[in-house]
Structures are given as structure tokens and as C-alpha cells.
């Protein structure tokens, strides 16, 4: 496939002509690139998931998180402009869903405005090029806006850029789950002689990803070799994974949306000198929010957690999912709750999972409850329940003891 | 604590009353109604619990009636915790209070109230009067006013004192104030989630989450439906597009047009072939007609020849037949002649037999008729004799003119005469002549009347008296009449007798008997005659005449017959039988001869007819055969059979050739017939139309679906679905957490309540322990049931059966209440609380037996407690052995 005349013309002209001068180094590099007519510079990103709803959050946070994704596109556009890349490759799942709202599609186009060079969009599994996909609508908006620099790579056909120096080989998903390797055709794809061959695909690189990865859309791990690719830009895996196979990179999502700590929040800036040369890959952070998942084991002392929380530089931009395990006395438990209550207001989001954190009331706790009379009897009964693995009310009993403790302390406090 | 003395002056109904030297144990205060026992209790309460400066309604009531200016005053001496106190309060008029105790100098004024509250453990009301249930500590419980003993315990604020006392006794099991506070806190936690009945509350967090969940789920299902619909539309759109593309790729429409054109060309070709076939078909038909003509001519010739031969043959056969039939007819005629002769012979034989038989029959008739005539003659003779005898008897009978009727009339006339005679004898004067010796009397009739003989004079009679003359006696009236009557009667009788020729009645009877005898004989003779000639003598005579005539006739007939026949006539019956048999044989022979003749005649007639018919046939066949022969000869003369055969062969060859042509065109036509071609053309046309329509339809549908999808595509429905799914997952997590919290709150509250209840049950033990020995005295095998919360008496459990307190009898209620009070007072005292029990007429409903036992109870209780009994019934408590105080 070739871009329409006009688009190609623009694509070729813009990187030099329209990019504002910001940072001499970048410009120099660009001039070098353009001047020598050798080096190709690409910005590789993926998995924007525009329209992701973030249902687990309250309205306010949801709005902020959603806004952040648009802002990320804006930053990517600015970066592409600043680093004068030859093209931006979006390796699938730019949109979270094919029914993404028109408004969101338009907003993405607005955010993309900073970079006027070619944007190559690959339909991924979330925005597969099915009938009625977002791409048809996007095309409508593009023509309405007169934008020719945005290319929707929804057909398995080579896209020649830079007068044939760069050939993009896309493997668009036309179904959510293909099951087959769509990149097979790369092996026999004809490209102009001397062109840099860049594959663009969305799915799971076989045998190279953790087991958790969704393998519905497999990609052969040897594809760069068999298809003589100079670079294989991949999407779907939300973390940044450079050289996961030779010349193969997952850019990850630019703005994280989940807790797994697989280094999301980056884009890849790639420089390729020419066909057969090793690409130079730069990982550039673009994320606003930091999503972190931590696990802490607390055994009898909740004091360490304060320090853990303190290590975060910018808790207001951090989403922390903290899984707690271990056991605490009731005193420590109450202290823990106080600590969490404080930090909950400082973090953008603090998600505490304490299913494996157990209350273990000790004698001191019970002394504090000033156990006497029927209260002692009641607490003993609850402790017996809490200790009995077969008791269906075991969990409730544990919590009940803590409640008794808390209430008792509150009453004592009031009395005192 | 116990009271030692009490003095009340100018207090309500009491002007001055004083109790001194109250025992620390049991005391009885006796007073009649209106003596002021209750006032005494009121005064005691006033002293302890009423602020002396009080001016409320209750305090006003302390004044005696019309007692303005009076000064209600109460002085109480009591001992508490080993110290003695003397309390004195005056109300309304110059109110004053003083309390002397183990101090250097008595306290007075408001300090007294403070001191009392401290000593006795009660609180004064902020304002207003002291109320029994709220402010008087345990004393409401222990000082029982009249009429309240059977209401219950009136425990009120005393509960806390009891509880405190019990806690002191049973240790810290109650958890103290903090325990109660914790229960309240747990209740608050529980109530956040649950209603009083244990359901999830309307404002519970769980409810809110559930509501939110329900809304989200509903919304999700709607969104999913919308999403599903969109997916469906997309799927359909894709399907339509693919279909459309399929059509276009396969150039289906163009191909269909091409097919139509081809079909039209084929149709034209087929029509040409059809025409060719029709021409060939017509030629074949023509050749077939030609051949059929030839065949027909040949057939006709053959037929003609055959016909001629057949006619000849038929003629010959008819001639043979005729000869045969003619012979048969002759033979039949001869047979008829023979049969006619035989018939005549048989007829003659029959006539002869009949004659013989007839003669024989006539002779038999003559013999029979002669016998009959002789018999008749004898009968007539006998009957004639009888008839003569009958006539003689009839003559004799007719001489006797009397019959049953005449006899009856005579009888009746005789009776009437005798009757008259008798009556005359009676009515007639009796005359007795008794002449002197020698004298005689003569009756009118001249006879001599004997002396002394009584004479009845029935009619004027003239008696001649000898020697005297005559005497005429004339009987009076009746006798004269009777006498004439008698005469008449006698006359009548005589007339009757004369008529029948008898002289007297007896004679008449004899005559009548004679007549009857004659009649009997007559009847006998008549019967005999009737038996002989039932039809009458004349008829018999006529029959005789007829018989004689018949005999005469027959004799004449027989006489005229030939002798031969006559000889036989004398023979026996067998001769007759033989004759009959001969006659029958002759008849049969005649009938057979008749039949043979008839058959022969009929056969002869048939033979004659057949001969006529055969003759006619013969003539007919003959002429036919001649005509046929003439026809054949004529035809052969025209065109010979060989020529005809040749013509047929020519026609066959022509037909064969034309059939070959036809079958060729037929095959061609079948291969590409006009109908099939037309059908194919139509099918092609239809296919083209159909495809055009389908394409149009697909295009329309695609355009429509594209519009719909465009409208719905960007609605963010997928995002909404995902959002809702995530929200639901989040809510479910929250729900689980909240549910656990709710469960925990409920568990905590329930566990605390359970523990508290168990503890209470535990600490109710001491009260029950104290009640038990008392209760055993009054209501064996029973147990009190106290409300663990309020300590109020709930009821009594007797032999395992629960009885509600308010449904016990008044007596049982007051007994149980008093016993329980005493037990509680003991508990209070044990707990260091002031406790003295005052019972104001508290046992008025108790029967004698139980009252005695109550005495034991009171005595036992008073070993630890001061008990003051106020009563109007001295004798109820006389035997108690307690000090008596009188008002």
C-alpha cells in the first residue's frame, strides 16, 4: 500500500518544516538524519486504551485518570515533534473499545496535533478492524479535518514512507482474537530495495512473555529473522520490553492503567541507521501517574508501614495497591488503621488488600479491654470462634473482637 | 439498718403517735381502720425522702384536715452500720430538719437531706416530690404501702441497688458499667446494619450497596443488550457486505444477463426444430393414411373372397341339414299315427272297466238301501204302536179336569169356608136345650136335639120345643153376616169342586194324583217314541217312503243290466276291489296313451317346423353363395389381388422413410424442446430479476445498517459495559467487606447479650436461693421467675408449669411478692445497703394455713432483717411472738 500522493508529500515535508525548534540536540540529530538520508527515527508506542473507564474508582479519580490518557497522547505528540521522528507507530489498542465515544476520538486527534508527521495506527484486539470499528469513524474525522498524515494500517500491506526508505509492514487485527500469527506475510512482503523494514504487530510474542500474557494473538519469536525486519514494533503487553527478541520491542502503555509492575509509562524512541543495522532503542518515560503494587508482611508491628509510605516521592500522583499479610495485635491493628487513614488522603489512590492480615489479640489487648464479667465471657467466646477454622463465622468473629477493642478504647477515651 | 423509734405529730390523720423500742427483728403494729397505720408509713417516707422545705401537693397533704398552722413533724430513731441516728423533720410550718448521729453535734437544715441521701443511697428529685419508683432507692421495694403488695415488686430504682448488692456478692461477672456501655456501643454498631427484627435496615450501608449493585446490574444488562444489538448489527452489516462482495466478485448479475441471452437464442432454435418436427409429423401421418388405404383394399378383397367361400360352405351345410331334418319329420308323423291307435284302444278298455265297476256299485247300493228300508219299516211300526198308547193315555188324562192351579184354588176356598165356619161358631149364640124329662126339642131342620147339647145358632132358627112350642132364636148382627159369608164361601168351594168334577177336596186331591200318574206314564212313552223317531213319526214315515222308492229304482236298474255283470254282483267285496284296481289300471293306461300321443304330436309339429325353417335357410344360403361368387369375380376383373399387394409394399416403404425423418426431428425436439427452452428462458429471466432484487436489497440494507451503526458506534457503550463491570466488581468487594462488618457487629452484639444474659441468670441465683426456703413453705415445688433485666416478678413456676404473675390469685401474688421482697432485702442488706421491710396490711388475702406459714417466713427473715408489720387484724399476728405496738 502506498499513502495517497498528498499524504506522502506532507509526510515527507513535515518533519523538517513544521517541527518547532525545541532543544538543539534533537534538531541536530534530525538534521543529521534528514541530511544523510540514512538514519530513520521512529517513535513506537502502543496500548493507549483511550476510553478505558476505570470503574473501580470514584467519579473524581475516574475523570482524572481518563484525562491523563489524553494528556499522554499530547506528550507523545510533543515528544515526536521535539525529537523530530520520522513516524509515530501506534502498535494497537489506541482505543479501549470500538464503541469509544466520538468525543474521545476527537479529543485524541486534538492531542495529536503537535506532531504533523505520519502516525501509523495499527488496529489491535481492543480496536480490531471489524465492521463498524472506530477506524471507520476516525477516517471520517480525518477527512473532515483534512488530515492526511494519519494512516490507519488496517490491511496487511506494506506502507512505504520516506520515498521508499522506510517500509512499515502492519499485521492489523480484524478480529479481537485471531488465534493465528498474522505476521506471517512479512516474510514474503516485497519492499523497495534498500528500505528499512519495520514490522508493526499486536499480540503475544511466543515464548518470550510471562505466562500471564494473553496468547490469543500469537507472534512468532523468530519473525524479525524470517522477515528480515530491522525492527518489530509490538503492542499488547503493557510494560516496556526492549529486545524481548532480536530487534523486537514492546513499548508498553504510555500511561499505566494497572498495577502489575512491568514498567509501563514509556515510549520507545528508535533509531535505525539502515537496513540490517542494529536499532538504537531509547526508553522515554511519559507517564503522569505511577501505579505501584506492593506487598508487605506485618508481624506484630505496624510501624514499618509508615516508612514504606514515605518512600513515595509524589504520592499525589501515585496509585498504590498494598497487599498486607501477617498478623497484628489489636493495638497494632488500630495503629495501622490510623496510619492508612492518614496516607489514604495523601495518595492519589491507596488500595489496601488485607485479606491475609489477621488480628491476633494478645493478653495486653485483652487487658486493655479491661475484661471482666460477661464481657470477658463474650470475648472468650469470640476468640474461640475466631480460632476455629471450621466455624463459618470465623472472619466475623475476628472483626468482632477488633470492634470490641476499638469500641472499648473509644469508650475508655471518652471516659478518660 | 433498723428503725428504733418513730414519733409522728400533727401529720395528716395522726395527731400524735409514737412507737418506741422497735425490735431489730420482727415487730407488729396494730391499728384499726383509720387509726393511721398507712399515715405512719407515709410519715416515715416523708422523714427520709421528702425535703423538709418542700411545699408541693404531696407536702400539703401532710397537714391534718383544717389544720392551718399545724406543724407536721416526724422523728425517727434508727440504727445503720452500727451507729445510731435520730432524724427529725417538721414540714410547712416552721420547717426544720435535724439529724443526730455519730457526730459531735447534730446536722440540721439542708445538710440533713444531703446526709440522708448519702446514708441511704438515694437521690433527691431535682424538683417536685419524691417519687416512689425513681427516687427512693430500694425503699420503694421494701416499704410496702397498703394495697400494693400484690401488684408486684415495685422495684423501680431499687433495681440498681439490688444489682449493686448482687454484684458485690457475685463478683465482677457483670462487667460493671463499662460492660453495659460496651453493649450499648455494640448495639449501636449492630443497629447501623440491622433492624430490631434482625433484618437489614433501610439505612444500612449494605442496603445502599445492594441498591447500587442492583442499579448497576440493571444498567449493565441494558448496556449489554445495547452492545449486543450493536454487535448484531455489525455482524449483519459485515455479512451483507460480504454477500454483496460475493455477488460482485462472482459477477453474478452479468452472468445472469448472459444466461438469459443464451436461453433466448436456445428458445429460437427450439422453435425452428419444433416446426420441422411438425412437418415430419404431418408427412408420417399422410404416409400412414396411404398405407392404411392399401391395407384396407387388400383386406376388403380377402374378405370378399373369404365371404364367397363361406357362403358356399354355408349353403352346402344347409342342404345337408335339410335332408336330415326332413327325414326326422317323416319319422315323427309315423310315430303320431301309432300313438293315436294305442290311444283309442286304451280308451275302449277304460270304458269297459268303468261300466263293470258301475254295475257292481249299483248292486251294492241296492242291498244297502233294502236293509235300510227294512229297518225303517220296523221303527215306524213300533213308533205307531207307541203313538196309539200315548193317544189313549192323553184321552184318559184329559178326563181329569184338575190341575195344580185348580187344586190350589180349591184349597184356598176350603180354608176360607172353614175360617167363616169357625168365626160363626164363635159369634153364634150357643143354645143348650135341657128339656124336662121326656121333652124333646126339635131343630128347625126337624131333627131332635139331645138334652144338654149345645146348639150354635147362626141364623134365625126356630126350635120346636116339645111341649112348649117353638122358640125362634135370631142371632145378632155379626152372626148373621158371618152366616152369609159362610154361605158364599161354601158356594165358591162347591163351584170349584164342580168345575173339576170332584165332590170334595179330598176327592179333588185324589184326582190330581191320578192325573200326575198318567202324565208320568205319558212322558215315559213319549221318550221311547222320541228315541225311536227323533225327527218325528211323520218324517220317519217319509224317509221310509223315500227308501222304498230308492230300492224300487235300484231294483229296476239292476234288472236292466247284462247278466255277466250281474254274476259278479253277488260276489264279495273283493270283487269290488278287483274292479276298482282294474279301473285304475285302465285309467293309467289311457292317461299314458294320451301323453304318448301328445308328445308324438308335439315332436311331429316341431319337426315339421324345423323342416320348414331348414328349407328356407337352404334357399337363402343358396342365393347368398351365388351373389358372393358374382362379387368376387367382378372385383378380380377390376384390379387383381397381386396388384393390391404391390401397392401396400410401396406404401410401407414410404412410411418407413417418413418415420425415420420424424424420429430424427423428434429426438432433436426432445433434446432442445421449445417448452424446455422457454422454461429455461423464464428461469434465467427470473434469476436475473431475483439477483437484481437481492443486490438492491443488500445495498439498501447495507446503507441502512451503516447508518445505524454510525449512529450507535461512537456511543461508548463498550466502555459503559466495562465501566459497569468494574464498578460491580468493586461494589461486590465492598459489599463483602460491609457484609463482614455487619456480621461482625451482629456477632459482637449477640455474643455480648448472650454473655450478659448468662451472667444475669447466674446472678439471679442468690435471690432465688433466698426465696427458695420461704417459697417452699407456702408453695412447695415452685420457683419464682424474675425478669433478668428489670428484676420484676414475671411469674411462678409450679411443678414445671409457668404461671404468669398477674394471673395468680391475689393471695398467691401477695405471698410471692412479700417473700421475694424479703429475699431482696436480705440481698440488699448483704450488699451493705440499708434494708428494713415494712409491710402495711400486706397479707390481707392470705388464708389461715398460709398465714401461719407466712409467720414462719417472717420469723425466719427477721433473724437478719428488721420487719415491721402494720395490720388491722391483731389476731392474725397474735401468735407471731413479736412485740405488739398499738396505735
UniProtKB/TrEMBL annotation, chain A:
Keyword Endoplasmic reticulum assigned: no
Source organism, top-level taxon: Bacteria
Database matches in CDD domains: MPP_Mre11_N
Keywords on record: Exonuclease, Hydrolase, Nuclease
GO molecular function: exonuclease activity
Keyword check for Nuclease: yes
Family annotation (InterPro entries): Calcineurin-like_PHP (IPR004843), DNA_Repair-Maintenance_Comp (IPR050535), Metallo-depent_PP-like (IPR029052), Mre11_N (IPR041796), UCP033093_metalloPase (IPR014577)
Protein name, entry field: DNA repair exonuclease
Lineage of origin: Bacteria, Pseudomonadati, Pseudomonadota, Alphaproteobacteria, Hyphomicrobiales
UniProtKB/TrEMBL annotation, chain B:
Transcription regulation recorded as keyword: no
The entry's keywords: Coiled coil
Record flagged with keyword Coiled coil: yes
InterPro entries given in the database record: P-loop_NTPase, Rad50/SbcC_AAA
Transmembrane segments: none
UniProt xrefs under Gene3D superfamilies: P-loop containing nucleotide triphosphate hydrolases
Record-linked SUPFAM superfamilies: P-loop containing nucleoside triphosphate hydrolases (SSF52540)
Domain Rad50/SbcC-type AAA as annotated: residue spans: 6-57
Coiled-coil region: 206-280, 336-370, 479-528, 641-748
One Pfam short name: AAA_23
The name this protein goes by in its record: AAA family ATPase
